[in-house]
Design brief:
The complex is a heterodimer of chains A (253) and B (319). Chain A has 253 residues and is an alpha/beta fold. Chain A folds into two domains: 82 residues, Elongation Factor Tu (Ef-tu), domain 3 (Beta Barrel), CATH 2.40.30.10; 152 residues, Rossmann fold (3-Layer(aba) Sandwich), CATH 3.40.50. Chain A contains four helices and 18 strands. In chain A, helix 3 packs parallel to helix 4. With 319 residues, chain B is of the alpha/beta class. Chain B has one domain: Alpha-Beta Barrel (TIM Barrel). Classes of the chains: A alpha/beta (253), B alpha/beta (319). The complex binds flavin-adenine dinucleotide, flavin mononucleotide and FE2/S2 (inorganic) cluster. The site of flavin mononucleotide has 28 residues of chain B, from strand 6 and strand 18.
Chain lengths: 253, 319
Amino acid sequence: MPIHQIATVTKAEKENGIVTTLTFDTPLSHAQPGQFVMLWLPGFDEKPYGVAGVSPLRISVGARGPFSKKLCGMEKGDRVWLRGPYGKGFELKGKKILLVGGGYGFGPLRFLAEVARKRKVSATAICGARSKGLLMLPAACKTIFTTDDGSAGTKGNVLVAMKELLAKERFDVVYTCGPERMMSAVAYEAKAHKAGCQLLLERYMKCGIGICGHCCIGDKLVCIDGPMFGLEILENPEFCKVWRTKTGKRVPI
Amino acid sequence: MGVQSCPKEYMPHRTKGAFMLETTLCGIKLRNPLILASGIRGNSAGLLIRAGKEGAGAATSKSCSLLPHEGHANPTMVDIDGTYINAIGLSNPGVDDEIYEIREAVAKAGIPIIASFYAGKVSDFAAVAARISEAKPAMLEVDISCPSRKDALFSSYAKDASEVCLAVRDATSIPFSAKLSPDVPNIGEIARACVASGASCITAINTIGGMYIDAHARHAVLANSFGGISGAAIKPVALKSVYLVRKAIGPEVPIIGTGGVFTGIDAIEMLMAGATCVGVGTAIATRKESAPFKAIAQEMESFMKKEGYRKLADLKLQE
Ligand SMILES: Cc1cc2nc3c(=O)[nH]c(=O)nc-3n(C[C@H](O)[C@H](O)[C@H](O)COP(=O)(O)OP(=O)(O)OC[C@H]3O[C@@H](n4cnc5c(N)ncnc54)[C@H](O)[C@@H]3O)c2cc1C
Ligand SMILES: Cc1cc2nc3c(=O)[nH]c(=O)nc-3n(C[C@H](O)[C@H](O)[C@H](O)COP(=O)(O)O)c2cc1C
Ligand code: FES
């Protein structure tokens, strides 16, 4: 059995100036929101991407460096090789949940919204961006948009909208995916309102299966202990502080 | 394997577990002989400390070099039906950063830390050995199963292996183990050369060279094309290598027997082949327990109790 399975792009959707969402011809039915796959472009590289939908498989990619740009440039019929799903995904808990994210991080949250709808859990989403041209498409639930410049939705960042919402309504769990500092602020806000919180973390990954140790954050491994972490991650000495480069060198976030 | 395989006098004295796995390696006391192998979850202080919490007797850090190394592009490691192959490419932040991780691990892990390192030339081995020794690890491990020049490893030839060991011996006063590749016809001879050149211990084995190809992709799976196999598949080679090394270096010099150990019984077999301690790598990720070393140690203990062994030194093959 080959380790990688092949998936062919059936649709490449430009969601905004940065993010492209790829839809593939294969399902990945056993994957949970928050889990990731390792996408391999033979002869080029292999990197982790969060699952943004499973029937069929969807992935939201933000164009950053060479690999992600290549993925964003893919067209119908192009093939990728993938292994996974790996890691611990979101745990759907409670009756009423809040999803907070922005950029490609909103992909896995939209997948969670779909699952919540199927399980009859009430979900609300907050999706933020710097400006209108960078917003993601809405989730399968009530979606509040925010932009830093006020060009669409509420003016300000996701935290502004989150504070407004939490002043009026109670949520059991807040799910968040996006830049680490944003997630940190979201988690503290959730904690202050006595809600649970689940965050999706990223660190440089090599094996993706808990052997090489490269994706460590403190004594945790993002690829197997995460990428989903609960509020306990706020106590981790490297959370929001240390990122490790491809060599493993500590650099400040 | 029956009860008759262990000395009769031990049968009535089934000691309580806690101490029966205690052992000594190069004068260092270990609570059990299970050692986290280099390159497996050992590239940060946090992870080395975690190995201690998970029950390891000692932990080896990821091999570091004089300068930082990014290693190979991904894929760097894949698992095909339990046979793992990797070509991480010895990525590490370089000794100047590594020293910080080792210092912190030495201070906080509560178990002996073995600092592993490698180099591309003999003088660099000495330089890294001297520098990493400043962090005061209990022991060093010199990974000589890394490329020396095109198509060869330092551990491919007794002469190269011995040159490295002599250089390391002169650069540090900390005891060191030489880590050998099994991809040679004469591992015993190479081990003997290392010991004669100052190595206080032998670690055997590193991964075995191998390659996977994806037919649909028409590409080698590893970005480096080939890499090293680890996990259950390599246990027979590891056992044979340890057995041959023991024969070659005599009964006194310790051996860290590494390769394909997943269970307590595997570890016992490694000791019977001639190892003093047992390196555990790939299994750490595949065993699902939250404390894999503790689980393996418990399996060792229950085997020993059941079969009537009282101490590790009694785990020997029958004459
Ligand atoms: C669990 C996880 C899930 C992810 N999910 C998504 C997703 O759904 N969508 C998305 O667009 N991106 C996702 N990423 C990030 C993605 O893996 C790439 O890092 C990103 O696409 C940039 O790669 P690049 O080669 O284009 O850029 P580069 O210029 O090479 O790198 C840009 C940044 O990405 C980091 N990075 C590069 N390679 C890796 C790697 N192998 N592992 C982790 N970080 C790396 C670098 O440190 C740098 O900070 C995820 C990362 C992780 C760890
Ligand atoms: C991902 C990975 C990285 C490794 N890196 C190193 C290394 O840096 N230095 C070293 O001496 N051995 C390294 N090894 C070899 C292991 O220490 C060990 O010898 C080998 O994996 C066999 O043991 P196992 O079957 O228990 O994994 C590495 C192995 C793996 C799987
Ligand atoms: S990426 Fe290798 S341990 Fe997480």
